[in-house]
Request: fold
Amino acid sequence: MDSVARLDLRTPAGALLESALGSLVGYQLAQAAIVTTRVYEEQVGQPFELRPVEYTLLALIGDNPGSSSASLAQALAVSAPNITAWIDRLLARALVRRRQSTTDRRRQELRLTAAGTTVVTQATERLIEAERQALTGLSRAELAMLLELLQRVARHRDTR
Amino acid sequence: MDSVARLDLRTPAGALLESALGSLVGYQLAQAAIVTTRVYEEQVGQPFELRPVEYTLLALIGDNPGSSSASLAQALAVSAPNITAWIDRLLARALVRRRQSTTDRRRQELRLTAAGTTVVTQATERLIEAERQALTGLSRAELAMLLELLQRVARHRDTR
DNA sequence: TATTGTTATACTCTATAACTATA
DNA sequence: TATAGTTATAGAGTATAACAATA
Reply:
């Protein structure tokens, strides 16, 4: 009847059964995130003194020079006041610069500074490498498959 | 050189590029969790007035009658004082009952009440069904593959 | 009128430290 | 000495409401 796999009924920690939870994407995402969060903290969070949101903002601004707070808030699914606070921190550390849009003077266009570019480049390199090393049980192809499936889950954000 | 897939360079929200982030498991997990968190809140969080941690505790206790706070803290990767507070809430709502272990009187053995069993059973049913409906883009086999890959990521918790 | 962004504020969730009781 | 669990407390991260400036 049900083709959903439940290969291992124990928690990663090994102590408890998780029969029903094993079929829940939300639960499995949270469990998997425990691993990636640890990797992030060790490789980027502590050495660069960057919270996950801060790193993600840097990466998105780097890929999208001139982006606005509104689009970043949307991408990260956090409130506008939050983005303001995080951006303030990045501005104070001179990792990001801000300029008022000439065409729409309500908008603040955000860009990385040279320092910001350096930080986000190094951080991303470290993260990708560290995730690969941490996830030794997954082949390169399996990792690619996982990323694609996650992307397709994420794409259901608007479908409602 | 690099076989990691980057099918779509835009954020699920559609506005921004995410070239480097697309290869990071941690980022993709967070983006995917935006979808499952919304599903959770609609289907269980609001109707049952249960926070994610509370639901997960109920599910784990249900699968592991007599489990201790310590094992639950380990499974969820949260601190012991936190577990105490959450369990207190579940006790106050009579969804869980607690009994001192006879063999080790420091331990508190946790079990679901009848009400707790009812709640967690209904909540799990709703969640599994709602996730399936929300993730229309994924076939049954792809969903199973995703769950298995996530489980294998999570299993790297101890490998360090 | 709607949107961008900010300030003020309060709430939720979290962890650390210090403690009690058992082992 | 070490572990299970609790209490007290403070910090991090979050959102909502109210506002100013601009469209």
Q: What stands out?
A: The mean pLDDT of chain A is 91. Chain A is about 60% helix and 5% strand. Residues 68-70, 80-81, 83-84, 104-108 of chain A lie near DNA strand C (CB under 10 Å from a C1').
